Amino acid sequence: MKPIFNVQEIVNAGSDPTLVWEAIVSTAVKANVSDIHVLSQKKGCALVYRLDGDMRPQGVFENEFARRMINHVKSLSEIDLGENRRPVEGRMLMDFDSKSVDLRVSVIPSIHGQDMVVRMFDRTISLMDLNDLGMLSEQLNFVSDMISRPHGLILVCGPTGSGKTTTLYAMLRKLAGKDRKIMTIENPAEYELEGVNQTQVNPRIGVTFAALLAAILRQDPDVIMVGEIRDEETAITAVRAANTGNLVLATTHATRASRAIETMLGLNVHPYFLAAALRGVMAQVLVKRVCPHCREALPDTRDIIVDADLVGRLQHEDVKPQLYHGRGCEICYDSGYHGRVGLFELFLPDDNIKQLILDRRPALEIEAAACKARMLTLEQSGKLAALKGLTTMEEIVDSLPNV
User: Fold this and answer.
1) Would strands 152-157 and 247-252 be described as parallel, antiparallel, or unpaired?
2) pLDDT band at 187 (very low <50, low <70, confident <90, very high)
3) What Cα–Cα distance (Å) separates residue 109 from each residue in 83, 84, 86, 114, 120?
4) pLDDT at 225 over 80
5) Do residues 247 and 212 lie in contact, with contact meaning Cβ atoms separated by under 8 Å?
6) Residue 263 Cα to chain centre, angstroms
7) Residues 6 or more apart from 37 whose CB is under 8 A from it?
8) What does the alpha-carbon distance between residue 63 and residue 78 come to, in Å, rounded to a whole number?
9) Is 227 exposed, middle or buried (0-12, 13-18, 19+ CB in 10 A)?
10) The pairing of beta strand 223-226 with beta strand 247-252
11) Average predicted confidence (pLDDT) for the chain
12) pTM score, two decimals?
């Protein structure tokens, strides 16, 4: 796979670290890279881009040049240049043509120097609508029903980097401007949302998720978004808020929708209050999207055995089931993929599932009950996404080992 930024062609003995860093970021912005990694190693410092979830090596700097460049980035990010023994974080804004890019910098000491990771947020990119996330029509209907409720708890779960915040932002955009006061608690606020009052945590001074949530409840909100539930106090307060008249949208780390309930019970939320508050649970992952510029249909699609009932779920999608692959082109850097798309499993708890929550039944039983109520699992959503031409079966197998 060809590199996006060729270190050997650009960096030489007399290179200016300032200009090289600008070139690295400019190239990353054009390629929609999510993270820039500068990794100190014994024989040099590797530059790696994370693109569409994959680590893409771009070449190696000399360690001395990398040290000077990292110090330049630390200076721009208002990080103490004299602190090389502890992890440090900073932030900067850079402008490229019409793009304004927010860079979140993290530097840690390593045995060969310093490792730096820079997460990129392009503030000029318009936020996604619910229709653009990759959900099926029936899933969109479920989400519309969930967020239309005046109060209750909606949980969105998935691994780190699975697009949970993007999904929550899409929900909030749908709710904004409907005579409801919307407030968020984030770490940090990634994008500015019109019509939404956003706050962010600052653990250094004791402004935690739990502390901000307790304060926000005195601000007369209608809708509250909690960026992450990770501790007992936040979990209990969020459920209490959902039971006393607020619509609460929150994320938690769990790989399945059913396991999000298990996570909440593990944080000592009372099962009665959780069952009463819960309006819906969604799990999601991101998979690579087939490059639309070099996409080709696979001729043997008809010979692939697929559950007829599953294919029937596409009847409202206005697409003909067909598998595709990307042959590779300049746009996708010969990978066959360009961008990513979400896979979702979600359910609205019925009386049966609420009883299982009350009885503290394990996640497998809750998942079985949700499937009996025709929940699409992540695996099923993945197969349907492949049949819609959004991704490939190979990518589904790689991303979801249980397929």
Assistant:
1) parallel
2) confident
3) 10, 6, 7, 5, 21
4) yes
5) no
6) 19
7) 46, 47, 48, 49, 50, 55, 115, 116, 117
8) 22
9) buried
10) parallel
11) 89
12) 0.87
